[in-house]
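Worked problem 6 (solution included).
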Amino acid sequence: MPPIYHIPALLQPTIDGLDIKPEGNYVDATFGGGGHSREIIKHLNAKGHLYAFDQDQDAIVNALNDKRFTFIHANFRYIKNFMMYYGVEELDGIIADLGVSFHHFDTEQRGFSFRFDGPLDMRMNQNATIKASDIVNNYTEEQLTNIFRLYGEMNNARQIAKRIVSTRQNQPITTIEQLNNTIAPLCSKDKEKKDYARIYQALRIETNDELGALRQLLDASLQLLRQGGRIAVLTYHSLEDRLVKIFFRSGNFEGKIEKDFYGNPMTPFEVINKKVIVADEQEIDSNPRARSAKLRIAQKK
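Solution. The predicted structure is:
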């Protein structure tokens, strides 16, 4: 039996939240194993269409054989360009599941997990030029400190960066085992796995410019969604969730809310779920990785 590519978290709440119109145009910004796409397609009639983005070559094998489906091998940050290319002026909905697929975490050669030895890669797009090893070996101590502090939220970010810089002077750090051995003395024994996960998360975010791509997707959603169109975003760490929360509430990343003459807030979105949606215990039991998933949904006014 082949390994499971990915199990989407909060699948039904996400599909329900999109409020799918049978004749609508939709985008699955993070196709992966195709879990969300297969559910969306079920709700579309012959006039409806789904465009799915994935920058990873491995995801192409999961593409749906359906006339209502178009697979786009690209980063979702280019959504505006591709919608223009396909002549789509308005979208009825956008779904983005920002979690890393099981496939990525469980494939040793991709370098996403501290659990296996392998090359320190972490590229979602295998044609990209910068690997995690390039960051580890070429960034300055200051740059590494900022990455581990901002993206990993590590209190000892400076010490981690200093140790990496010191270690690489003797030999480049190119494998997961080498990185693990380097950072091990600085990870607390009582929460070692959590510290490792945060350090790897920080490197992955920087390698793939994940927050920059998310900002571009959210900005594009303002222009592409029709009035009444919806966007559903699943996040897995506080940095992403904070960005989405602020943007849905204000329509910008600064959180500034303009008011009209009467003092009413002028915001482009209506937040559908005032309280973030999380997985229940039943889902977590069957899919433990759903524990950290947070779903936010907004509708274009």
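Discussion: The chain has a mean pLDDT of 92.
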